[in-house]
Amino acid sequence: MRITRDLLLRLAKQHTEERAYNDETIIAAYLTGSVLHEEPLLGNTTDIDLVFVHNTPVETARELKMLSPDVHLDIHHRSEKDYTPPRELRANPWLGYELYDPQLLYETKHFFEFTQASLRAGFDDPKSILKRSHTLLEHARKIWMALQFNAEKLTPDVLLNYLDALHNAANAIAELTGAPLGERRLLLDFPARAEAIDQPQFTPGLFGLLGGTKLLPARLESWLPAWKNFFNFASEAHGVDIRIHAERLGYYEKAFLAIINGETPLAALYPMLLTWTLAAQALPENQIGDWQSACAELGFSDASLEERLSALDHYMDTIEEKLEALLQENGFELSEIL
Hints:
It is a single chain. By secondary structure, this protein is an alpha+beta fold. It has two domains: 5-120, Beta Polymerase, domain 2 (2-Layer Sandwich); 126-319, no CATH class. Helices cover 51% and strands 11% of the residues. The protein has twelve helices and five strands. A five-stranded mixed sheet has the order 3-4-2-1-5, covered by helices on one side. Helix 4 packs antiparallel against helix 5 (156-174), helix 5 runs antiparallel to helix 10 (269-281) and helix 7 (202-209) packs antiparallel against helix 12. The longest helix has 25 residues, at 126-150. It is globular. 38% of the residues are buried. The mean pLDDT is 94.
């Protein structure tokens, strides 16, 4: 099947119309994510990110639905209470951008129109931008603090928290010039965001915190069979993270191959390590040897945890210094954005 943006938009509208017709609790639905961009495909795969807003409490927050081997729906369900008060959403680094400029597919009672208008007022002001960025950095710092006191050995849980902290720290930079970056394209799109604020050194710092400074691209490709085995086994486990879903295997694998064979091969490292770790989390400890070996090659081990956390601390300090400088340039005190 030839996948075009027009086809993806048509599929999004068709599915939304069907769901809204059969579910009276849906009061709004909108499209967000990669399909809004001119080039939504990566490795000729993509997901269609839909958000359904309900006027009742939500039982299932997220679901996936396969449309073809290369396209699936990624549906988020939210309650209308998640959007109140609307003016506070402008300080929300994720939901704020999601609602700022999506494509509206369905609406009743003018819910979307009113909520978006309240959000957009002041959204692009320096104070709002810096507050969203600072929120992400603070979240990363809280995760780091918890790791400082609780991480005695490298486990999938510990590495997932480390990667989450790193993702939030990187997005504290990305948020200064646009929407936060998703997991699959984080390392592809981050360099441009760092350049946009004249801080290109944040890019090698980010790769270094992932252990990718000395890694050969061929090594990433050689890990793919083991990664795939983990993914397949974990996708059948009870209670596994929804990102490790059988319908998303091609979505990741084809993207990794496209990145590895592209101009920035090591940009596959973050999403590959993240999903491998999510899969390892769902498997017994005696079955995660390949993951442990890959982590060791990247410099993640029981013995190196303290050093890695120290490096992450330094990276976040550098980001904090940049944010403080921007606050001063705009005539704000830190207390004004807290």
